[in-house]
Amino acid sequence: MNIVLGFTEPPYPFGNAAARWFYVLFKGLVERGHNVTAFTAYSNESDRLAALELFPAPKYDLRMYPARQKSSLLNKLQTVAEPYSYLFNDDFRRDLKARLDTGFDVLHLEPIWAGWLGKKHIKRSLVHVHYLSSIDLAGPGGKQSMSPLLFGLTVNAERRLLGKYRNIGVLSPRLRDAVAAINPRAHIDVVPLGLDTSLYPFDTAPPPMRRPTVGLIGSFTWHPTLIAAERMFTRLWPEISRRVPEARLQVVGRGANQALARFADTPNVEIHADVPDPVPYFQSTDVMLYAPPAGSGMKVKILESFALGTPVVTNTEGMEGLPAEDGVHAGIADDDAGLIERTIGLLRDADRRHTQRSAARKLIETVCDPETTVSAIEAIHRRIGSA
Length: 387
Prior knowledge:
CATH superfamily of the largest domain: Glycogen Phosphorylase B
Number of strands: 13
Radius of gyration: 21 Å
Oligomer: single chain
Distance between the termini: 13 Å
CATH class of the largest domain: Alpha Beta
């Protein structure tokens, strides 16, 4: 097939969270013999260079364009009309139009804000939705995380975009139901986020004995993760630390120092911001405790914990899109007491941690397998192309 992809970040498996899937999708479609051109914005030069190395021409047709700086007056005006469309600069739009004018079978856009690029090609476009701001911002403090104007513009724009398209992909049944409520006429397919687990080292042997360590790894510029961290510090960690006084907490991720500065002096806590490689932190964590209050879509740091063999305790929000069982693949509870008990139970039982981590790795290899997820997308493309 003749496929055009539109992304918000380069297809680099260690960059932006969504880019892990962009990498799997682009690579998988090309390997299946399709004629694929990928257009992407980028905000990080190192990610651009890394993607170019992974996808060299002429085998891959990857075209990348710097995202505009959102502080400019033009971008602010554009945000009013089409929120987040400033990501796609004039060169991106001109070259995409020229490529589409040569003919194509499917225009595949993701995540939702890339939908601004396909308004003239609705019948032959697929928008793959990773999350919905209307859900994410409905949790504690969500509306307060941005200006009332931007909140209103964002939620309204989401509805406008979803109402236009007839082919929409989503990561989870929850997102499917939410999108169907907005656009009951759309053909909505659930396709989980594909993850190349071969890039995630998994040691089949149990980790060595060490100081019990609870971890929270994520981007603290994303509101649900920030609220999860605040819950950790104010409601979960004090009781865990009291009952397992030898334990330590390590919090790792983008913007962590600034966002969590008021917790920096908490005893037995380490905060690491903007680390070059999070894998060693996953590997030194005995329990990843991550319970976001309201965050739609699949949580990449949960997927990566499963892939790397880091035992997880989370809530139903954190486990969205994964058919995980409590006590088998992860500890799953929505109340504070349940989260605390499951975390302490794992900290005190190395055999239980090892059994759970092995089951979680098998689950992620099944649900997020690149072969399965790309095949699902390919089937949607064929349906659109034959319509």
